[in-house]
């Protein structure tokens, strides 16, 4: 569909469909081939393009990510007095059973422990921040004319940021590349 944002896999870039170019043949009710001009210098077939779709795993409201500390097996607390919490490193647990999630290699933690601690807190807060952005969007969407311009701008930015999290790439469906229908002679 013209104006639709697509990922051009062979180029590794996002583009917008500028022109849909069907190729018709006598005896067929639908085009035998459809190419898409996305402004990258050549036409692309449907299988070369991927569309963003909402990720089914994006539902975070029931998730309780939390920051835990794990014992550093490679360095004793006495060897790391410059660490914010000597002898441990942060682990963000994203599973109910206190395992699974995000952790960092010991060498990377030792290089900049304050930055890693900040990243761990930010990752642990991500589901709550995402829910906050969704609440902002829904409150502005309920009465967009009543929302101040600053709130509408924040809602637009929140929508853009949320899409980078919730939209994943999917292979084109029949909507993007219709399959030809062959008629019997």
Features:
single chain; 185 residues; alpha+beta; 2 domains; four-stranded antiparallel sheet; three-stranded antiparallel sheet; elongated; disordered C terminus
Order of neighbouring strands in the sheet with most strands? 2-1-6-10
Low-confidence stretches: 175-185
What portion of residues belong to β-strands? 15-25%
Average pLDDT figure:
83
Q: Secondary-structure element order, as H and E?
A: EEEEEEEEEHHHE
Helix content: 25-40%
What is the domain total for the residues? Answer: 2
Spatial extent as radius of gyration: 24 Å
The coarse silhouette is elongated
The total of helices stands at: 3
Structural class: alpha+beta
- Spatial gap, N to C terminus: 31 Å
């Amino acid at each position: 569909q013209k104006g639709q944002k697509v990922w051009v896999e062979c180029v590794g870039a996002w583009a917008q469909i500028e022109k849909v170019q069907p190729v018709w043949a006598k005896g067929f009710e639908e085009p035998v081939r459809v190419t898409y001009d996305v402004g990258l210098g050549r036409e692309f077939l449907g299988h070369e393009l991927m569309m963003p779709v909402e990720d089914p795993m994006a539902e975070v409201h029931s998730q309780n990510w939390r920051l835990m500390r794990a014992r550093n097996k490679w360095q004793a607390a006495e060897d790391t007095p410059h660490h914010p919490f000597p002898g441990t490193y942060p682990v963000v647990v994203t599973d109910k059973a206190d395992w699974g999630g995000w952790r960092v290699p010991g060498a990377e933690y030792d290089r900049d422990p304050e930055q890693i601690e900040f990243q761990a807190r930010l990752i642990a807060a991500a589901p709550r921040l995402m829910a906050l952005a969704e609440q902002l969007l829904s409150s502005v969407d309920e009465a967009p004319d009543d929302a101040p311009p600053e709130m509408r701008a924040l809602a637009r930015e929140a929508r853009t940021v949320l899409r980078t999290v919730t939209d994943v790439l999917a292979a084109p469906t029949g909507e993007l590349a219709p399959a030809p229908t062959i008629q019997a002679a």
